[in-house]
User: Fold this.
Amino acid sequence: MTPKKTQNHPEIFQSRLDNLLNMRHKLVKLSQQINWKAFENEFGNFYTPEWGRPGLPIRLLAGLTYLSRMFDFSDEASVEMLLENPYWQYFCGYEYFQISSPLEASSLVRWRKRIGEKGVEFLLKQTIVTAQKTGQLTEKHMEKVNGDTTVQEKNIAFPTDARLYRR
Assistant:
């Protein structure tokens, strides 16, 4: 089904996040700079309106994906941190402080499989667009690109006894 809207139903003693948080915090500022509507337009077609369980909010999934990569957390740690950190909740689109987890770590895995490689490229593109819009990335920064090759496979053969014997 189509993603449900973020649950922002006020309860009698529930606190609004914008009353609790420092609105000059870096995550609050960043969440206000990102074009979240673009994510809904891009990923909304992955959901069918007629059948299945209601999908999780796209902003929650995209925001949590950004946060987990930004702070180098696993999916499980990211879901735990979302529940504990009100800045993360604000970044992911919640207006009121949540006391129960809105998703499980496996939901992030299924969402990444659903959006595929093109979806991840779209996330990267939106990161670059936001960085350019805020002035954090200029043309000078894009003149030269450094590639990290430490994770690439290398053709290294270690001198094992069997290899030395064949030689």
Remarks:
- The CA atoms of residues 129 and 135 lie 10 Å apart.
- The first helix runs from residue 17 to 20.
